[in-house]
Write a structure and sequence with these properties.
There is one protein chain. By secondary structure, this protein is an alpha+beta fold. Helices cover 30% and strands 31% of the residues. The protein has two domains: 109 residues, Gcn5-related N-acetyltransferase (GNAT) (Aminopeptidase, 3-Layer(aba) Sandwich); 157 residues, Aminopeptidase, CATH 3.40.630.30. It contains eight helices and twelve strands. The radius of gyration is 20 Å and the shape is globular.
Length: 309
């Protein structure tokens, strides 16, 4: 069968459903829907040069690639390629064709270094190495059983600290943008990020269809957001914390744990049965917090890097 590589068609339900299906089969621990795909395609900043690709055989989407520049990086020329192939359609050349098309796109837009998350399995790592990518840092996916597991008991905030919901900031989310920007800048990563575009953050993060301001929890000190956990849901039974962090001036006081515990309890009360999150393996403080909640590793990815030119 001939495999064709082309752009995802956002007005074609079969494309969107096929893309989401392949992603779910490859990464069942990441929330992803046809609606979230359309939102990303239409709202990611134009400087990201975002280009989702599909590999199609006999009219069926059998492979996907998310391709974009890290336009918020402090170092220009950082590109990203994440390729996944339907488990029943591997070894047909779809992955190689997707990588080739993605690399050509990013190189044409000035990328000099390419980053790719690769599942920590022998076949996947060997595929990346054959295409010139070298292993770098790693990250875990973690799962928590909200239906049958036991959460730590709710805790009262310490004096001077108040727990609020993301919805409390609906009229002015900028304080949460500033907190997100500060904590993201301190996350372990191969790429340094600097969030400065508030309008882009509103479009890409705050108004994202998976984002749940209702289940997002914020620890506030003297009227200032000091720590938060940002929640996402898939509209069904799956909940995810997309980001948890504390402003530098308030670290070491257990505020991130306080906020995340509040969000998890409210998610369970709302009927969500599975909670997912992810951690860079070098992020010891957050790993310790998630172990305290009872999260267990359910998958691992290794970031691979290739220098162009």
């Amino acid at each position: 069968m001939t495999v064709i590589i082309r752009d995802l068609r956002p007005d074609a339900p079969a494309d969107l459903e096929g893309f989401a299906r392949v992603r779910h089969l490859a990464l069942p621990f990441i929330l992803f829907t046809p609606g979230s795909l359309v939102h990303d395609l239409t709202h990611l900043h134009r400087d990201a040069r975002y280009r989702p690709l599909v590999a199609v055989a006999d009219g069926e989407v059998i492979g996907t690639a998310q391709v974009h520049l890290s336009h918020e990086s402090t170092e220009p020329g950082q590109g990203n390629i994440n390729v996944y192939v339907h488990p029943e359609h591997t070894r047909r050349g779809a992955g190689t064709l997707l990588v080739r098309a993605a690399e050509e796109h990013l190189a044409a837009h000035g990328a000099t270094r390419l980053h790719s998350w690769v599942l920590d399995e022998p076949g996947n790592r060997a595929f990346a190495e054959r295409h010139g990518y070298r292993a770098s840092r790693s990250a875990h996916f973690l799962r928590l059983d909200l239906a049958g597991g036991t959460l730590p008991p709710r805790q009262d905030p310490p004096p001077g600290v108040e727990l609020r919901r993301g919805t409390d900031f609906a009229d002015d989310p900028r304080p949460l943008f500033e907190l997100d920007a500060e904590t993201t800048a301190d996350e372990p990563s191969d790429v340094d990020y600097e969030f400065t575009d508030y309008a882009a953050w509103l479009a890409e993060t705050w108004r994202h269809p998976l984002f749940s301001p209702e289940l997002t929890s914020v620890a506030v000190v003297d009227g200032r957001p000091a720590a938060f956990t940002a929640a996402r849901t898939d509209g069904g039974t799956r909940y995810s914390t997309a980001m948890t962090g504390t402003a530098r001036a308030f670290r070491g006081r257990g505020l991130a744990k306080l906020a995340k515990n509040d969000s998890l309890h409210r998610a369970r009360a709302a009927g969500y049965t599975e909670a997912f999150t992810g951690n860079d393996t070098g992020n010891a403080p957050m790993i310790a917090i998630n172990e305290w909640f009872g999260y267990a590793v359910c998958g691992t990815e290794v970031r691979h890097v290739r220098e162009l030119g």
